[in-house]
């Protein structure tokens, strides 16, 4: 079950942990470089989420935690996805496929 509050949807802690575990061996689907968040980056992430539901995004040129956190939340908002976690320089994003027949991940 996913919690909702004022049109904002939150994953439960156990669901975020489950998703991070699934994505552990994934390769990053996109890299955030010195240009930051661009339209092409958002399109790339949207395409990857459409194909896989769960992806990793690596922050290459950003080392400060606060900046990475703000950028990770911004990406989640722009892609209408859930930020499942931010560990080191890697963020995990989840967006359930709209077509129920194409869903690959079942949340606990």
UniProtKB/TrEMBL annotation:
Keywords carried by this UniProt record: RNA-binding
Domain of life: Bacteria
One of the record's GO molecular function terms: RNA binding
Domain CRM: 9-106
Pfam families: CRS1_YhbY
Record protein name field: CRM domain-containing protein
């Amino acid at each position: 079950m996913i919690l909702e509050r004022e049109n904002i949807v939150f994953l439960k802690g156990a669901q975020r942990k489950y998703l991070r575990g699934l994505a552990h061996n994934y390769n990053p689907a996109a890299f955030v470089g010195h240009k930051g968040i661009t339209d092409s980056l958002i399109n790339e992430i949207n395409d990857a989420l459409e194909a896989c539901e769960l992806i990793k995004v690596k922050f290459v040129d950003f080392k400060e935690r606060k900046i990475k956190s703000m950028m990770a939340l911004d990406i989640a908002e722009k892609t209408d996805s859930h930020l499942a976690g931010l560990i080191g320089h890697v963020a995990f994003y989840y967006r359930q496929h709209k077509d129920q027949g194409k869903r690959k991940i079942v949340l606990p």
